[in-house]
Recover the amino acids of this structure.
């Protein structure tokens, strides 16, 4: 048997597998030969540590010291690693440092905290404010108010039962009458609706079932990372994807500690960067998980003029108010106000308590005599004006919490003297008031609250309200500027190659709201906005046949992107859409009549007879959808960075928001153009890693002729050339490529999919694209 070389320290490409009880380590191991043949260097596994039983994602960790039994335990993971090694593959795992599941039955450290309170050695693990709620940890686990649900609370020995949940009893309290028994615990079970305003523990965003972990504490870091570090030391695992570092108290310090503990293993972080934001240069990581690349690739295949025209059509069709979907910036601001005052009210209250303590204890008279309501108002007004997730200790906080934001926040106050609270808060965030007691805690909690607010207000609310072009409403995206010029894309790639050459890049993930191929189809609508408006007028009867035109617009775009699909998948995705939007119904205040009307519309519209007209329209645009799908895939696989291929996306993959995109993986059984292209690119990356690696080069290549603007091309290290078709419908309407040419760098260039085809010198683009609307060429005559 020919020896298989070890997996490289820096992946050439990773393949994301969503592990779950229906797809455990054993199933992943069976897929190894297929994935090795595909050409990746590493398997990228979703979280592997012990999670809530039945979890389909693994981010609800309950025991970071154990590999998850439902997946096959540590023995199963080791077996997968051995088989992967035999095929030349390594393992990258997704790690969750920010939170654990609030599930006492399964989370033993939390169980001990509930039983022993702040004296428990595990109390330092969890981010709990014991000074609030009378020293009891508030647990929002009751379906109704306590008075209505108390009959479902039962004591059995030293355990309290509540429906299917169990909680430990404080020693010596088990014989007390129930009301007194509840008062005597270190926790207090309450109606779940109180989570919005009364919680005294940090959570993941607004998800009360996930409790924040204090990994900034060295002992907690050691306890929660021990198993992961051992697996790295023993060669079972090779690299890491760090989930949501923005939730941590000090991402800078955490990543330095992690880098030292792992010996500098390849690590990427799930950091969502705003359009003009850069990753902190001091972070000792390879880069991000790649949402910044996703935004650029998608934008490259979006027609800017058509997107603007589509926006106008959307405004006339749906007639949304400016701050409820009509304009991007006002929609984000309104959503932020809603989230900060409702969903994150408890986080703002805790932040207010912290800043009030800091001001009261400060020897600086300028910090004294500020009413809590004024400080709360200042916090809220500054938070909603942040345009990135959060500030960091290693970067300039003044660039995040700007003077412009402060001026706008001051204007909200009717009494100028009370507006000084804004300056107090901002100065504390910026570290201008020294570093007295509580200052560091305030800065950390302000940043943590800011990141939760940004995620909930933008990705989980505004993305579902402002919907002129759904393909732009993706994680890390900027719906207000959906298109990207080719020259801007090239500039981005050059910067990545220079600054973060080993960063991750993605097009589809477990968190994307629509897979890359669904987005690629939807973006074609920017090339036919008027024709799309005509189709909508045909399938939409008077009165729209639905509860509101906003839903109609979103539903038909979703259906167009997905194509022929099971009605149940579309129903679930659109129900999630309207609940996230929160305009007529929501997850916590559901309007049954509205949701029934949505279901009826979907069944009778997209999933009924009118759907056939849209399907026919989509079929007529198939060549242009194909150009977008293949173009985006090839650019992703050959641009700077380490591409992550989401399970199944080596073939055309149409999926909507989770859980639709988290179905168990099945290896591809038949070939396709996209599969052939993906395999060729991945194998080339694995065979010649130096061409794409940290010392590689990226050189844009310009076409000449009437169709030049529709050809995007670049060369990697003088050895591999990528060329793709951009905005193919506009190209066809303008007369096609005609004599458009691309002058290749010196030498002979072979088609990676058909090596017998060679090109040299000035080449007609039409000749490059005879079979596919893209071309991947490799230098055929050496250096």
């Amino acid at each position: 048997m020919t020896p298989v070389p070890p997996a490289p320290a820096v992946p050439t490409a990773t393949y994301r597998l969503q592990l779950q009880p229906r797809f455990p380590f054993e199933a992943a191991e069976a897929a190894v030969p297929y994935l090795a043949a595909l050409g990746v260097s590493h398997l990228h596994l979703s979280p592997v540590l012990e999670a809530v039983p039945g979890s389909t994602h693994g981010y609800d960790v309950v025991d970071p010291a154990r590999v998850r039994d439902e997946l096959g335990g540590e023995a199963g993971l080791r077996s997968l690693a051995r088989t992967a090694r035999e095929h030349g593959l390594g393992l990258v795992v997704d790690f969750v440092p920010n939170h654990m599941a609030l599930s006492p039955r399964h989370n033993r450290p939390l169980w001990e905290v509930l039983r022993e309170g702040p004296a428990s050695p595990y109390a330092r693990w969890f981010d709990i404010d014991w000074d609030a709620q009378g020293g009891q940890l508030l647990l929002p686990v009751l379906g109704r108010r306590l008075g209505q649900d108390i009959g479902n609370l039962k004591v059995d020995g030293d355990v309290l039962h509540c429906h299917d949940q169990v909680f430990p009893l404080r020693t010596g309290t088990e014989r007390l009458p129930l009301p007194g028994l509840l008062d005597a615990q270190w926790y207090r079970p309450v109606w779940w609706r109180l989570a919005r305003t009364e919680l005294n523990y940090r959570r993941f965003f607004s998800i009360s079932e996930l409790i924040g972990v204090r990994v900034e504490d060295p002992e907690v870091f050691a306890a929660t990372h021990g198993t992961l570090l051992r697996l790295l030391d023993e060669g079972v695992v090779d690299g890491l994807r760090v989930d949501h570092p923005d939730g941590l108290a000090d991402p800078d310090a955490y990543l330095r500690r992690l880098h030292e503990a792992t010996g500098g293993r390849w690590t990427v972080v799930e950091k969502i960067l705003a359009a003009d934001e850069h990753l902190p240069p001091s972070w000792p990581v390879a880069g991000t998980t790649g949402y910044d690349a996703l935004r650029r690739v998608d934008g490259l295949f979006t027609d800017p003029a058509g997107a603007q025209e589509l926006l106008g059509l959307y405004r006339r069709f749906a007639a949304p108010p400016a701050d409820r979907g009509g304009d991007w910036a006002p929609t984000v601001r309104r959503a932020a106000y809603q989230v900060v005052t409702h969903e994150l009210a408890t986080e703002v209250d805790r932040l207010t308590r912290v800043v009030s303590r800091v001001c009261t204890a400060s020897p600086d008279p300028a910090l004294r005599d500020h009413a809590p309501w004024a400080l709360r108002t200042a916090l809220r007004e500054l938070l909603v004006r942040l345009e990135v997730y959060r500030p960091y200790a290693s970067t300039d906080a003044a660039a995040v919490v700007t003077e412009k934001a402060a001026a706008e926040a001051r204007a909200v106050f009717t009494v100028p003297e009370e507006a000084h609270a804004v300056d107090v808060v901002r100065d504390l965030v910026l570290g201008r008031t020294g570093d007295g007691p509580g200052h560091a805690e305030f800065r950390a909690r302000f940043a943590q609250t800011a990141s939760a607010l940004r995620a909930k207000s933008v990705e989980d609310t505004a993305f579902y309200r402002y919907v002129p072009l759904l393909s732009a409403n993706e994680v890390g995206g900027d719906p207000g500027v959906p298109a990207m010029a080719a020259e801007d894309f090239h500039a981005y790639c050059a910067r990545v190659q220079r600054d973060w050459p080993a960063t991750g890049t993605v097009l589809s993930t477990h968190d994307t709201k629509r897979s890359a191929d669904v987005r690629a189809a939807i973006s074609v609508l920017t090339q036919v906005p008027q024709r799309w408006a005509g189709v909508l007028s045909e399938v939409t009867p008077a009165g729209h046949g639905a509860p509101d035109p906003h839903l109609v617009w979103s539903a038909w775009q979703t259906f167009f992107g997905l194509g022929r699909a099971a009605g149940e998948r579309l129903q679930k995705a659109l129900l999630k859409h309207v609940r996230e939007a929160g305009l007529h119904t929501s997850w916590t205040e559901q309007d049954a009549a509205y949701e029934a009307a949505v279901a009826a519309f979907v069944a009778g519209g997209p999933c009924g007879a009118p759907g056939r007209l849209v399907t026919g329209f989509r079929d007529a645009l198939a060549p242009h959808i194909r150009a977008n799908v293949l173009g985006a895939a090839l650019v992703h696989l050959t641009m700077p960075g380490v591409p992550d291929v989401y399970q199944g996306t080596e073939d055309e993959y149409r999926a909507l928001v989770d859980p639709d995109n988290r179905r168990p993986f099945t290896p591809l059984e038949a070939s396709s153009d996209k599969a052939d292209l993906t395999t060729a690119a991945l194998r080339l990356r694995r065979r010649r890693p130096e061409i794409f690696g940290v010392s590689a080069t990226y050189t844009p290549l310009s076409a000449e002729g009437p169709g030049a603007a529709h050809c995007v091309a670049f060369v990697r290290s003088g050895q591999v050339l990528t060329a793709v078709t951009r905005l193919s419908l506009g190209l066809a309407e303008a007369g096609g490529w005609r004599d458009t040419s691309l002058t290749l760098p010196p030498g002979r260039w072979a088609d990676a999919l058909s090596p017998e085809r060679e090109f040299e010198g000035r080449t007609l683009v039409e000749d490059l694209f005879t079979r596919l609307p893209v071309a991947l060429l490799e230098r055929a005559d050496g250096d």
